[in-house]
Structures are given as C-alpha cells and as structure tokens.
Structure prediction request, 102 residues.
Amino acid sequence: MDEKTALANIGKIIHRSDGTPRPPARFTRKVREWELNNFSGILTEVEPDKWGEGKCYINIEEKRITGNGGAITTAIFNRSGWLSENHHLGEHPENAADASIK
Prediction:
C-alpha cells in the first residue's frame, strides 16, 4: 500500500500479514509471536512523509475480544509504525497451519 491509498482509506479495516500460516492453538508462544506480525485493525491516522524518504507513519487501532471463564473482555490496542507493502485493505485472512504440523 502506498501513502495516497492510506490517506484515502482512513477509518477502514487494514491488515498486516507476513505471509506465514497461523500455528495451531496449542503452540501458545508461537501463536503470540505470529499475532505480533499478523493483525487487523482500523486505520486511524496517517502521517505523510516529511523528509522525502517515501515512507509514512501510520496508526492502527486493533480490538480484541477475549472470554475467560464466562467473562467477556474487550481490549483496544494502538499499533504504530511505518507503512509497508505488508499492509493490505480488507479483512485479515486467518491462514490455517499446514497439515504436516501435528
């Protein structure tokens, strides 16, 4: 995604993916590491490039809903960083792990 596309799509769902499949749920540490690089959220802010380097800074608001023992909790995370080619518009596809992982 480029800077013009990002500026035009503030308020829409964006996802970041490194292209790796999601590990099975029983590998909790691997799932946590995967979720750091693969997430979806609402694009809330785009700061255009000020130095002519071709980069712009973005802020994505991610909402997570968790349930522990019947209680439902909603958490909002703000993720900031440089816009890259790993950011795409639309829902994040939950890639299933390969069948070879058991």
Remarks:
- The chain is about 15% helix and 40% strand.
- The beta strands are 13-16, 39-47, 57-68, 71-82, 87-89.
- Residues 3-89 form one domain.
